[in-house]
Amino acid sequence: MDVKVFRTFLELAKVRHFGRAAENLYITQAAVSARIKQLESHFDTQLFIRDRNNIKLTSAGERLVSYAEVMVTTLQQAKLELSLESGKKLQLIMGGTPNVWDAYLQNCLSVTTEAFEGYGFIAEVMGREALVRSLQERTLDMAFAFDQIKADELNCKKVADVALTLVSTEPRSVEEVFADKYVYVDWGTKFVAEHAERHSKIPAPYLRTSTARIALDFILEKGGSAYLPNSLVEAFIVSGQLHRVEGVEDWYRPIYLSYRKASSSVDAIKQVEELVKNIIPSSSFSLSQVAEV
Predict the structure, then answer these.
(1) Cα–Cα distance list, 289 to 2, 170, 191, 232, 286 (Å)
(2) I want to staple 149 with a disulfide (CB 3.0 to 4.6 A). Which of 90, 133, 198, 258 is the partner?
(3) What is the phi-psi region of residue 223: left when phi exceeds 0, alpha when psi lies from -120 to 50, beta otherwise?
(4) What pTM value is reported for the model?
(5) Taking the C-alpha atoms of 260, 98, 278 and 192 in order, what is their torsion angle to the nearest 10 degrees?
(6) For residues 283 and 264, what is the distance between their CA atoms, to the nearest angstrom?
(7) Hey, what domains does the chain have and what are their CATH numbers?
């Protein structure tokens, strides 16, 4: 049985909602339903009682939770040990929110994998709640996010600042830029309040998104403006496809690294921490190629 099926079961058991489980796992709701049916068919028993939006575990489902947790943890540990036997010194699983990957982590991954020759890496994109849960469940070694993840069992340290630049597809002043297709990108909880303070009297955004790549693709196709990482838009500014909005200073957002204090890989994680502190964010390879075309 695929470990993903058990992870889906545990997620649904926790949130008690098919839609939220699908969102947290980055899969479709139909996929969640299919995996639960697969599990129920395998054990020949009903695991959930479905009554409209009210989802409850059956007694069998309650008993399966502890077994599923052991199954997921055991398979993860087996994966690690097999990677060691195959000649890799260590396997590190790093995760980040979508915007952290867009703004910073993509380039960090490239530099880190080169610096740690012989190590195995797994890269995951997750929402903030999924990052916290994966750290606590020991299925993730390192979590990168724009907001601090605070818990007694975790270390949380600032490792970088990302510069956000207000760019537009046409040369415009700050007075003009918010009036036509301004795309609001979510850069963390503190960003919401700071954005309202910095730009207090502007129309409602034309589009809201939690992902910088969506905002970038949208304004390049449709026109408009957005606060985007300098590392993401630099090549497009050089090519003339985007323009800095005059009179608006870059906006710096901190990136935090979180990991378990008692992690068996803590020495390697600290080495990665020191390495990424000195990495200057740059455009991802694929976007640099697109901008040059």
Answers:
(1) 37, 22, 30, 12, 5
(2) 258
(3) left
(4) 0.66
(5) -90
(6) 33
(7) 3-71 (1.10.10.10), 84-159+255-281 (3.40.190.10), 161-253 (3.40.190.10)
Written as six digits, the tokens of 223 are: 């026109």
Say how many CA atoms lie within 13 Å of 6 toward its Cβ.
17
Q: Do 145 and 128 contact (CB within 8 A), yes or no?
A: yes
Q: What is the pLDDT along the chain (293 residues), one digit of tens a residue?
A: 778 899 899 999 989 988 888 888 888 899 999 999 999 999 999 999 987 668 899 999 999 998 888 888 777 666 655 555 455 556 788 999 988 988 888 888 888 888 877 677 888 998 888 898 889 888 889 999 998 988 888 999 999 899 999 999 999 988 889 988 999 998 988 888 899 999 988 899 999 998 899 999 999 999 999 999 998 898 899 999 999 998 899 999 999 999 999 887 888 888 888 888 877 665 444 444 444 54
For residue 63, the number of C-alpha atoms closer than 13 Å in the C-beta half-sphere is: 6
- What residues contact residue 263 under an 8 Å CB cut-off, 6+ apart? 138, 141, 269
Whole-angstrom distance, CA of residue 223 vs CA of residue 168: 8
Calculate ∠ Cα 231-169-283, nearest 5°: 15
What distance in Å separates the CA atoms of residue 185 and residue 211, rounded to the nearest whole number? 7
Which residue type, as a one-letter code, is found at position 225? S
Query: To which H or E segment does residue 9 belong?
Result: helix 3-15
CA distance 133 to 138: 8
Question: Among 68, 21, 74, which residue's Cα sits nearest to residue 40?
Answer: 68
Q: Give pLDDT, residue 171.
A: 94
Q: How far apart are CA 291 and CA 235, in angstroms?
A: 6
Geometric angle at alpha carbon 83, from 82 and 85, rounded to 5°:
65
Are the C-beta atoms of 171 and 243 separated by less than 8 Å? yes
CA distance 228 to 211: 10
